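Sanity check

After download, print the first record. It should look like this:
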Amino acid sequence: MGSRIPSSAFNKHASLKVAVHGEPEDRRQPYVARIIEARTVREELERRERERTEDARYPAMDAAARALLKHFEDGEILSNPDDDFWWNELTDAVDDRRDASERANLVVYVRNVVRETYSYARLVGKNPAATGRARQALESAAALAGLSTTG
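Expected structure tokens:
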């Protein structure tokens, strides 16, 4: 008896694994290619919808980012002196938004600045903002970024 030939179920499993985890260049069989193409189209539509949604709220997100930076630069927002990565990223990104994709990504920087600020404040047992206006800027940015400011 020679070597065993994999069953069609094994082949289908292997093909579907490529379809789920593979890239478009991994096409091996027509049904796998259709699955990969459908996934690629769906991902592109999702990316475009996210960009459209974020682009629509970009003016508010831009204003929130600029308010956060103003209060941060004025020393009114608590930050970890040993880890200001997200503040640096936000500073670099706020004026460098040329297309819809870059504008949509501004929310990532704002979200992470807010998360890091509240996380560090909890860690050291201090208020995240030294003034009411700074607190309001943090809360507004958190709401725009879809974050909760409680516990």
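If your output differs, re-run the checksum step. Summary of this record's structure: The mean pLDDT is 83.
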